Structure formats: structure tokens, C-alpha cells
Amino acid sequence: MADRTLLRAAQLTLVAALGATLLVPVIWPLDQSAVDLAHVGLSPSPGHPGGTDDLGRDVLHRSIYGLRVSVLVGIVAALAASLLGGIVGGLAGLLGGWTDRVLMRLIDTLAALPHLLLGIFIVAMLRPSLGAVILSIGLTHWLSTARIVRSELLSLRTRPFIDAAIAGGASRRRVLTRHLLPHVLPKIALATTLMIPHAVWHETSLSFLGLGLPPHLASLGNMINDGQRSLLTGSWWASIVPGLLIIVVTLAIAALATRWRDRLDPRARAELDL
Amino acid sequence: MIKLVRRRLAVAVPVLFATSIGMFLLGAASPMDPAMQYAGATAFTTDPANLAQIRANWGVDDPLPVQYARWLGNLFQGDLGWSTSRHEPVGAVIAARAGWTLLLIGVTLAVVLAGSLLLGTIAAYRRGGLFDRGIRAAAYAVESMPVFWLALAAIAVFALALGWFPAGGLTDVTATSTTFGDVAHHLVLPVAVLTVSQAPWFLLFVRDSVADSLRDDHVLAARARGLRGRTVLFGHALRTALLPFLTLVGTHLPELVGGSVLVETVFSLPGLGAVSVQAALGSDFPLLAAITLITTAVVLLANLCTDLAYTAADPRVRIDG
Amino acid sequence: MTLLHTEGLSVRFRLRDAVVQAVTDLHLRVRAGELLAVVGESGCGKSVLAHALLGLLPANAEVSGHATVDGTDLLHSGEKVLARQIRGRKIGLIPQSPATALTAVRTGRTLLAETLRAHDRDPKTADRVAADAGFDPADLDRYPFQLSGGMAQRLVTALALATDPPLLIADEPTTGLDRPLVDHTLDLLRRRCDNGGAVLLITHDLAAAERVADTVAVMYASRIVEHRPATGVFTEPAHPYTAALLKALPDREFRPIPGHPPMLTALPPGCAFAPRCPRADTTCATPPTGPVACHHPLHTEVAV
Q1: Residue C105 burial by CB count (10 A; 0-12/13-18/19+): exposed, middle or buried?
Q2: Helices of type H across C162-235
Q3: CA–CA min distance A130, chain C (Å)
Q4: Which part of chain C has CATH 3.40.50.300?
Q5: Whole-number Cα distances in Å, C124 to A227, C115, C121, C130, C139
Q6: Model pTM score
Q7: How far is A167 from chain C (nearest CA, A)?
Q8: How far is residue A85's CA from residue A147's CA, in Å, rounded to a whole number?
Q9: What is the ipTM of this complex?
Q10: What angle do CA A134, A136, A140 make, to 5 degrees?
Q11: Which residue intervals define the domain ABC transmembrane type-1 in the entry (chain A) (predicted)?
Q12: Which of C240, C251, C250, C194 is nearest to C218 (CA)?
């Protein structure tokens, strides 16, 4: 019962977040460079539910724009990472043998690399920009998808219906597109969804450090970074409000994805509580 | 055990080399001109001939493989290069800061391990109870909070609103020397933030694996022998449940390093993380590359150590090899 | 002197969408010097009985009825009382599947010494305790994964006997052992009873029960269906299920019982054996009671 309430809350949150990011630009477009020095550092009030920052900009308004940018970057980067992971995992799972062993050992080692530091290096050398951020996420976040695809393919290879298809004279391409892909794709989709929060985190971390999206752009990381200045003057809301948005959306995505995983893998749920 | 070390090194060394090549190529592709950076603000007034001289001295215009070989050779000889953003040798920059980062990560790791073992075990022991549910809900909530946000929130509450701890730095502004008490007071918030942000993962892992192992045959058998609860918990349930924990500590180190970069930046600590962000902002290839490579090597080494510890702790692996 | 006494003992497990009736309305009595064998097919609730008596059931188990050992209440005592006064002291357990019952990262010696110390006995006597159970003291420094099945069995036996409990529960102690080892284990149990101890032998091995038991309780689908002195049970089984079990033995008729035992989540309201029973009729729709729980026993005049 508590589970269902939480799930419903997560769904509502995501719908609300999606609605806000889609509707707000239409109803109330944001001028990214506008400042309002007459209303600097106002605390949250009915007129400005998230308060205003040290340049008089409405924090909630900018946060919704920031969420839009962050989630978009997160989705694109997660897709890029999944594509890379899918290719490597697919190679390991389909070819098996030596290729598999070498690739898996490689993935295990790569997983041990400090990925935020590598991500910082990548954006620093390419100069902070949208493309650099996405590349930085894609290159450091593909390992989990590769592992999932590989293990799924390996378990599929031993299943009787694949043998039956091959024995029935199906071509390599046909086995791959008709039998393997339909089973692997849902897992990739799930892995990609679960990766979106991580990608958002990586992006906001980079932006927060001043190494992400261009500073004038309202992104959650940039806003929290800007908010640091206001923090010392007591305007805590300038960095706390955009952060709350990250947290709530992350929790909602995680809750839904966990439920999705339970559906895909009923074994995990059937476990008896003995 | 020697076999394990050899097998790990067989992958780790090529990966390190590949990382260094990748980093070097990225650095070479970077639009920054090291000579211009070296000259800094004076670049526009400097005679172009002088700039050309600097370029020639550094071999900036040599073919890439030659440059790479020279860079790597210098690294091996202990010459880490010249930091273009801080205008001092990279070696000196790192030497002055590595200790603080190690201190931050070391203390955090110790607190995280002790705390998550204790709280996770209690939660598992009283699973389903109020403490278990409360601490799990808290862990899930904290897991979704970005480290830097948590750090800012901690500053807002504990430094600015309550005034219990300083908001940043390592020593008091007025202090003339570095005293233990002063540093410890300044490190409370950073360590606490890093601990709270890293603990959920460890805590949930300990809780679940101990909860599982409490229903294992060998734990029930130990209870049936009339052993005290504490003996059963520590001598039987934890001992087997925590073997995989050892290797997982190693695999979680990258997260800890990432967290320390952010925490050091927010709290303005003079560590490697904060300085690497400054290097990145100044496109300082020699410094950033050296820090990234050294950190990567250290993390890989730490991973190897936890694997060796696992081998030593599990008789099934130790004896059968 | 009655050592173990249960009255109306029932155990239920609450699952997400079902209730498992593992043990139903059990009346047992074991006296000092007596060896009671609880026999039945696997999955009938025998092992749950052992765990219920020791208070080792998982959190979703619901226990009702009464059970005492040596006058001490077993079902309503707290974990502390069970750990300090019952387990190991009054009831010893030889657990099922010795290979998994031993803590993998500890040697036999540390396990044995730890048990002796917990019961205020001299840990230096470990060698003698091991030898008594037929475990070569020279092997005490081995880890469980270095022991054969028979050695592991003898080690868990030594651990159970280390504290010399008046009641010993042996849960399937002969499974997977070869002939000489089975004999050795059974002789050891018999000897304990002859020296005044009591043993509750839980087994699906009827031949083993026949060799050593004083009393036999036959369990089917969570209930005891026949509870009588051993000689009577094996020569003149009264319950059709007991008779069918005996006929299934390889050295008797080797004829398996038709059908399958019912799911413990969906037990019929009447006699659970009725669907497989040749003597069943409409009266079997009501639950039978008594030491021979049957409306149509094969023998009506039986010694109880």
C-alpha cells in the first residue's frame, strides 16, 4: 500500500515536472540574460515561490528552465552512453570466448577509474560546451549498459528457442533482429532510464564547477554555482531550490525505474520473506 | 596471490597507458596554446620571436608521438612538468596538496566504513523495525542528493545559520600556524558531508547482506548451539557477509574521489580535487593530466589491495588459490 | 520423566498471498532415555518442527500451542532466555545439510572451542569432544570446504554434543552418508538414549527409524497421523499412510504411493491423505483425531 502511494507520487511528480518544463516556456518565456536589480535577493513569497537571486531573477522560473536543459542533456548523454555500451556489450556477448574475456576485464578495470576526474579532463581540454559535456558523460557512463547487454546475450544464447531458430535455418541476421534484439532492447531501455539521473548528476556537477554548460544559461548546476555567492548573504534559496528540483526528479525516476525492473524480472519479486 | 597480482597488472598497466594516450591526444586537440598560456597576460606584448623561442624550447611543434614519448619519459623520471595556471612545477603543486586530499578521503572512508557497518548491522538485526525503515528511507533520500548541494546545505545550516563550524578553508584566517585543533575544526563539515553522501550505498549493502546472512544455515546452526547474539552476529553472520564487501570498497573508491573533488571545491580546501578544478578552468594540461593519471593509478592500486585483502580473508580462495 | 512436551503446537508462515501450514496441532512427549523418530516425506513440516522448538523460525512465522522442555516454556521465552538457557544447554541440534551449517571461514577447532567457551566448558577439551563424535582431532584445523560430507557430518555432531544437552534433535542426520557412516551415526544416537539422554530423530529414512527408535510419529501434510511404539508401527501399521510408506521401501514391496502430497498452502479441511487413500470414503471429509488419525485404520486395537 505504501508502495503504491509512493509510486503514484513518483508518477505525479514526473508528470508535473514534464508539464512544467513543456508549458512554462510557452506561458512564461524566460529571457536568459534579463536581470532585475530592483528585486534582488527576495526570500520565497507567493509572487516568487523560489525567491529571487542576487541579480533579481526568479529562482523557480529559472530552475524549471534549468531542469529542462539538464534532463535534455541527461537523456541525450544517456542515449550516447547506452549506444556505446550496447555496442561493446553486444560484441562481448555475441562473439564470446577471448573477445568477451578481454572486454569484460577491460570494463572491470575501467569501472575502477575516477570518472568525475576523467570527465573534468575531457571538458577541460575540449573547452566547456554542450558537446563536451555529453561526450564526457557518454565516455564515462557506458560500462553498466555493456555489462547488462553482455550478460543478457550470454543467457539468451543458452536458451532453447535460439537453438531452435538456428536449427530451423534462420540466418544470423534474422536470429539477431528477430530473436535477440527484442529481448535485449527492453533491458537497454531500462538501463538508459536508470542512467538519466546519473547523467544529470554528472552534468550538474560539471556545471557547478564551472566546467559544464555556458554560465549565462539557466541550468541547475550553473544556478547552484551562482547561488553559492548568495548563500553568504543569507539567500539560501538561490542554490537550495534548484537542488531540491534535482532531488525530487531523481527520486521519481529511480522509483519508477525500480518498479519497471521488478516487472521485467519477476524473480526478484517472488522471493519469499523467510 | 602472485597470479592475481599478475592478472590484475596485465590489464591495469595497458589501461593506464591507454588513458595517458587518450589524455595526451585530447590535450593536443585542445585549442589552447601552451606558450600563450605560459606568457599569460604578457602574451600580447611579448615579442612573437620570444613566443617562438618558448615553443621551440618545449617542442610544442614536434610530431605528436615525439611529444608523447617526451612527456611520458619525463613523467617516469619524476618530472611532472610546469603548471601553466599556477606558474610553478606540477610536482610541487601536487606534493603540497596530496596530503590534505588523502586526509579527507582517509578519514571519510574510516567513518563511512565504521558507521555503515554498525548502523547497517543494527538495521539488519532489527529488520522491519522502526530503526531499519527509518535509516533505509534516509539512505534512499540522501542517495539522490548531489554532493555539492549537500555541502551547500550543510554550510547554510551549520556554518551560517548556527555558526558551529567554519564555512570553508583549512585554518582560521587570522591563524599564523597550522594547529591540529584548528584543522580538525575546519574538517568536520567537509568530512561529514562526504561521509553522509557516500554512506548510503555502503549502509544499504551491509544491511541487505547481513539481513540475508542472518537466515543462512550456518548462522541458524550457530544460534542453535546457544552462542550469544553478539558472537553469532560478529563471528558468523558478519564474517561471511562482509567478504564481498571488501572488494566492493575498492570499486567504490572512484565515487569517493569524485565526491572529494566537489567537497574540496565547495569548502575551498587546498587539496588535489580543488586544484584540479582550477587547472581545468585554466586548461592547464600538465597539472590536470598529472593529477588524473596519478589518481587513476592510486585507485587501481587500492583496488588491487582490497582484492588481495579479500584473498587473505577467505580461506576458500587463499588455500585453493 | 518427560523431557519434551508439546500440546497443540502449530506453525504457520504468512506469505504475500498465501499461508503455509507447516505444522498443525502437534502433541508430542519425549521421556528421558527415549528415542522418538518423526518420519515423513520431505516437505511435510518435519524440519520446521525442529526450528520451532529452538525458536529459530523466521519473522513471518506464527507459532501457537504449548511446548516445554524440562519444564521451561519454549514458545513464549524471549530470545535471551532461549540463547542462554535452552539452545545448546537443554536442546542440542544436529542440523540438516552439515556442509552449509558450518561457517565457511572458520576452522573446526575455532567453532568447537567457541561453543565450549560459550557454555563455560574448557575449550582445550575440543580434541576429546571431536573424537567422541568420531571426528579425527587431527582434522580440526581444516576449513569446512576441505572436509568430506561424512567428516562435516561428524563435525556438526561433535558441535551438538559438545555441551551434552539432555535432549538432542537430529535433523536428517543420515542423508547422503554411506552405509558404515549411517550405522555409526545411528549407534551414537542410540547410545545417548541408553545413557539416559533423549533424542528426537527427524528423518525420511524409515529403515533408520526402525533400527533405533523407541517411538515413532508419522507426519503427513503438517500433522502427526500415527504416534505409537516403534515395534507396532513397523509390524502392524494402523494408518493407511504408514502402511503405504512401508510398502514403498525398496526391501519391501517397492511400490510408490500414487499421487502427490498436498500443497501446505492448500490443505483439505478433512483428512489430508484421503485423496491418495484406498480406504477413503465420505467420512474422511471431517478431520480424524487420536494417536492413529484415521477414520478407517488398518488395525483398531493398537498399543499407544
Answers
A1: buried
A2: 179-194, 206-212, 230-235
A3: 49
A4: 2-90+165-261
A5: 68, 12, 9, 11, 15
A6: 0.79
A7: 37
A8: 8
A9: 0.89
A10: 115
A11: 67-257
A12: C240
The residue with cell 587518450 is: B22
Of A239-243, C25-29, C272-276, minimum mean pLDDT range: A239-243
Distance, CA of C182 to chain centre: 16
Element of type H or E holding A242: helix A237-264
Inter-residue contact B271 to B264 (CB < 8 Å): yes
Phi/psi of residue C216, each to 5°? -130, 135
Q: Pull the grid cell for residue B231.
A: 558472537
What are the boundaries of each domain within chain A?
2-28+74-273
Within an 8 Å CB–CB cutoff, is residue A271 touching chain C? Answer: no
- Of C233, C234, C214, C213, which is closest to residue C291 (Cα–Cα)? C233
Q: Which of C103, C155, C163 to mutate to test the interface with B (most CBs of B within 10 A)?
A: C103
Domains identified in chain B and CATH numbers? 2-89 (no CATH), 93-312 (1.10.3720.10)
Q: Does residue B221 belong to the interface with chain C, where contact is any CB pair within 8 Å?
A: yes
| C187 pLDDT above the threshold of 70 | yes
Fold that domain C2-90+165-261 belongs to in CATH = Rossmann fold (3.40.50)
* All three cell numbers of B301: 592500486
Higher pLDDT, A127 or A244: A244
Q: Which of C56, C80, C105, C129 to mutate to test the interface with B (most CBs of B within 10 A)?
A: C105
Cα–Cα distance measured from residue A152 to residue A181, given in angstroms and rounded to the nearest whole number: 10
Q: Are A124 and A211 in contact (CB under 8 A)?
A: yes
Report strand pairing: C35-39 vs C198-203. Answer: parallel
Instruction: Supply the pLDDT for residue A249.
Output: 84
Rounded alpha-carbon distances, angstroms, from residue B145 to A204, B99, B138, C62: 12, 28, 11, 40
Count Cβ atoms within 10 A of the Cβ of residue C213 and give its class: 0-12 exposed, 13-18 middle, 19 or more buried: buried
List residues bridging with C66 in a β-sheet. C7
Residues C13, C18, C24: CA angle, nearest 5 degrees: 45
Question: Is C187 in contact with C199 (CB distance < 8 Å)?
Answer: no
Q: Which three cell numbers stand for residue C131?
A: 573424537
Q: Which of B12, B10, B128, B98 is nearest to B290 (CA)?
A: B98
Touching B: C residues 78-97, CB under 8 Å: 79, 83-84, 86-89, 92-93, 95-97
Nearest to C45 by CA among C65, C26, C30: C26
The DSSP element (H or E) to which B209 belongs, if any, is helix B180-213
Neighbours of C191 (CB within 10 A): 12
Domain A2-28+74-273 has CATH 1.10.3720.10: yes
